[in-house]
């Protein structure tokens, strides 16, 4: 596990306490030796320059022959020639450097770390030639200075293309082409790790799947950037905070205090609301029957006289308000609120007012409508816009009317089209006006993720941004009942953009499943590449749903890509934004030792971060975010119920797949081998699972037969630390199952690579069942608002510790299989964890959420998992043996519609429970109404309570 102390390409993190235990690497597939050009030979140092003047006297100890003196003169002459050559070369280099410096734009300073400062580069301006297949060959080193359009671009045999940059970031270069192919010894550079690209660079990949403009490239197809053996791809945009967390909740209204709406019929008299001008909070609400009560009129007068200057007041008449409205009250309304109409109000007139206390007429908005009859429908509407102390604009509206014979009055407090987000990290000044951001859902529905554009905000702190528009859903920004539910906020924009040009309408065979074009661009990197590093690049409209192996970023059978593979600078991707993708986010295929960090995968079809063949090992996923992972078509595990039964071309004869057992597994992180590291990632919304560890019994796909035994079930788990999983329709985390590794046949008609129930995780040293077990440690997992289960864990030995589960259908379900021959003697343990049945995060009744009902400690309306009658449980025992210790339960309250329990058992389990289950040192908050849901099968289960 690489670590460093500085700003290198590896994550800096504190290893969890358990990381010191033995973690054998298990089986590692064979390395592929990278092919790269030998480093240039260093020139020998020049000889010293002889000093001018007479030669020093020779000591006359012996006489030199004429031949010796001749050789000496020849050596002196050669030294003089070498001196002149050295001086000439130095002078020439000086003038070349001087010319280079003079040729740079004003304000640029020569920097050897900047690829576009290379003096060997020639200016290149190919222009717009959509029919030209450009080839950059050996000896051609080009600096692309302006935008261009080409049919294709091939860089080969040592050729090089570098995007020009400028110190002030004023360059704006767009290259449009059907594909870019980088072959042996060739390179494409946009910026560098120590000289990041400052301007705007765009690569637009053109073409349709049925295009006849140029033939498909073997292994790459169409619409791609391809890196073959010996190729170099270095893309490095400006460093920016990739994603962070909210630190203050943003309600659906967009206001910190939440919005306010009120409407009522026959609310006679003057209805009043007092609003805090700093926070938009409604401080006081009351109705004063000034039609029938002089005392109410006097009470209203005293209230108005007592309010501090600047407070916002809204008034609205319901039915009538003037019969007992005293003159002193009218005077108070006129003087304190600036009303012009109050002295002349008539019987059953509709009247509404919004004003500031002591603001005068200039701050008063009011309206009156005459009452002609009960069906006049004249609405008196008063509205004014204010601003909170944080600069959030909000409107206060009051209205009064007669409609269909009913007097109606009401109020509304709502944010205007600008809302401020408070964030955990300092994002200024790298997040800029015009950038796109996305807020993750903090509810059961992943479809509550929302996109916004950033607005200028001169007064915002370094941890604040202003967005255009207002949220439709609540996005939590706090730790709720002990569980961190802060919404992730991701930056989608980068100054290097690669995107696929899309058709405006759907075409081809995918139209039976999708109503839009799904043939985007893709980047594919083959083994033996020379150097590939991608950082702070935006990838939009990438991936091809109709083709396998065509993903936004795809490391294809690259072997070891770190020091073990001979790479002096290990391969990494850092800070990528992959969004609105048509097939996955990033695929690691038969590749080991890759570092993926700070990368966002948003709104994609199929598994997002995808390990493909079940032999990928030693890869590290550090601080990545995936959200809105939708179903796809490529694999059975990608498909939802409809796609599962519709796609039957690879099953045997007329077999109909079973969605619940073969499909419905699309996951944000699909981890096909346990020997990989997941640290500080967030899986914030998938159609099925956030993180799924699945176990291949043999290598699959293109790797099939190359590595016959993966031993994945037996291989110890890599580091799993500080990960988050929420808003997933099935589960936050799953450790279970495998895939079918044989083709469909009469004996087994299921499709190849469909989900299979045969695998059970049982880690042992060196992936050898004859050696001692190695416990898999899940440390600091946060899992909330998952419809089915927060975490489903099957196998052993597995330890979960320091974790939090809240608002899941079932918080954590263990199924160890330990009492069966698969791994006799194994067990599972949960320690020092928190389980919350229903928290104060009540959610928003919208998006994918289907169920809305009473629940929680406060018995208020809230979103519900699964259905209204599903018995919510905190910890579920499936069989065992399981140990649950030193953990806390809170917020488990039954309702008239359903039972709720802190600890329970699977209702569908027909197997017996082991007598070795143990529950000890548990703490139950007073909000837990049912501690243990027992049955006749658990009479021998040990239980003690603190």
TrEMBL record:
Segments traversing the membrane: 83-104
Species annotation: Takifugu rubripes (Japanese pufferfish)
One Gene Ontology MF term: carbohydrate binding
Bias (Pro residues): 36-54
Subcellular location: Cell membrane
Region span, Disordered: 24-75
Catalytic activity: Random hydrolysis of (1->4)-linkages between N-acetyl-beta-D-glucosamine and D-glucuronate residues in hyaluronate
Domain called G8: residue spans: 122-248
InterPro entries reported for this sequence: CEMIP/CEMIP2, CEMIP_beta-hel_dom, G8_domain, ILEI/PANDER_dom, Pectin_lyase_fold/virulence, TMEM2_PANDER-like
Pfam families: CEMIP_beta-hel, G8, ILEI
GO CC, one annotated term: plasma membrane
Compositionally biased intervals (Basic and acidic residues): 66-75
Keywords: Cell membrane, Glycoprotein, Lectin, Membrane, Repeat, Transmembrane, Transmembrane helix
Main location: membrane
Enzyme Commission identifier(s): 3.2.1.35
Protein known as: hyaluronoglucosaminidase
